[in-house]
Amino acid sequence: MAGAKEGDFAELVSPFLKRKLADIELKYGRGSAEWNVIALQYLRSPLENNVASSDRRRHYESELQIYHQGEPLHGVERLYKRTLLIEPTTACASHCRWCLRGQYPIKTLTKDDVKVIARYVGESPDCVDVDEVLITGGDPFMHPRLLRTTVEALGTYAPNVKTIRIGTRMPFQSPERINDELLSILVAATQRIEVAINVNHPLEFWDESTASLRRLLAVGARIYNQNPLLKGVNDHSSTLIELYDSLRNLEIESHYLFHAIPMAGMSHHRTSIAKGLHLAQRLCSSGTFSGRSKPRFALLTDIGKVVLYEGSILKRRPSDNSVLVQTGYRPEDRTRWNPSWSLPNSVEVDDHGFMTVWYRDGNDDTFDLTDYWGQPPAREPSTFGDTNVLPFAVA
Ligand code: SF4
Ligand 1 centroid vs 2 CA: distance in angstroms? Predict the structure, then answer.
């Protein structure tokens, strides 16, 4: 979650990424395909002002709004039986324009807040099934001292937690922050540590990034990747195959390929679901790279992740370009795991008691990048193919 004030998701690009963008501009030219890979992810576009009144400003509502032994819980979410999510800080080193957290307010917990959460996880009857905690945000690596407190408090108060997952983009935004101080937190942890990275394009495996990933692996962290499908960044099978090949070579698991989520002002990043399914089929049935590195294509719906299979899409509503998606989630489970959860308007419960949920599709429209950046970019030849209009044909 990245830090917005009342929906104003400021542009924030780390010094490391600024240097990389300048290097790419020098080498390939502003507006080249290589430049677009990074610019589309991090530079604010005038297209973000295209917000419809029906657009969502938040992703799913799963925050726990309860007290533990008289103390309020802050920064905790729960959708699933085994996993609880803690957000120590919503700050990030850079703001990814398509991020689901972009519209959330900036918040950082206190050490006392974190200790209350850890006691809740270890003591509350609501948490008897919890054995995994996902520490996310924001980027937890932004605040090593708070991360240390969180990991230590879970070790002290919540022995039921066997696995701690930490979500970060730091290796690709500010790899120098993967330093000895930060690594010492992972070394000291008594739980299994898994690090979820989010890399979208093979271009992002800069030497500094790869070295920081190796440092994480060297202290015993397991690393997995989950990334969105982004228009003009990675919506080609050849790009994705190279990405998943690179991850395999680094011993990083490919977990999810997400359809980019529907968020206010970010529709220009979203392909159609059909295109995502087509790419997933190409990836998973091509024989061109290791079967051990194939991700699952999933939607982030209002009630959680849904991996699509035949029959998952029940019907289409053209009036708002939405599809009704079958899930295996039941409302009574959700309220048992999260007493403050309520049924979103987008949900219908089927005859068997499972939730179906309406989800906004994207589209495969093209747009001219001169509109995107609000100014004509300088044109230079590109090794990725000459493109100033995003190439949406499935390669
Ligand atoms: S670093 Fe993570 S949380 Fe922050 S904006 Fe990017 S994807 Fe979102």
Answer: 6
Helix axes 273-284, 237-249, angle to 10 degrees: 50
Let me know if 232 is exposed, middle or buried by CB neighbors in 10 A (0-12, 13-18, 19+): buried
Domain ranges of the chain: 4-386
Domain 4-386 has CATH 3.20.20.70: yes
Q: In terms of Cα–Cα distance, which of 383, 22, 43 is closest to 238?
A: 383
Burial 55-78 (b: 16+ CB within 10 A, else e): ebeebbebbbeeebeeeebbbbbb
Could you report the per-residue pLDDT of 246-266, keeping only the tens digit for each?
999 999 999 999 999 998 889
Write down the pTM of the prediction. Answer: 0.92
Rounded distance, CA 106 to CA 86, Å?
15
Distance between CA atoms of residues 285 and 220, nearest Å: 32
Whether 103 is in the pocket of ligand 1, judged by its Cβ within 6 Å, is no
Of ligand 1's atoms, which has the minimum distance to the CA of residue 101?
8
**For the CA of 100, the nearest atom of ligand 1:** 8
- Write out pLDDT tens, residues 284-310: 998 888 899 999 999 999 999 999 999
